[in-house]
Please model this.
Amino acid sequence: MNATQTIGDLLAAALVAEDQRHRDEVARWAMVTSASQLARMISEVSNISADEAFSALTLVPDECLPLLTTPHGWCALSCLVAADLQINLTGNVLPTVH
Model:
């Protein structure tokens, strides 16, 4: 603690830290939700279950996780899963954007 900090400064710093933790938690929830939906879509165009597809998605390098945020990224990730599991996809995995 810095002697020049006021109680207001300390409270503001604590609130900013809590706000960042909340944003991080929401971002993690969004990624898991996105991956779950992608896994369901992969299972619809292949012969594997959504659980198997989700499990394969957990093995994708962290650098590829931003692909979960774009429709074309989903397509790329589905190709990675298909190659990893050596399966054929019978359709495209491209979500509808409204």
In short: The chain has a mean pLDDT of 85.
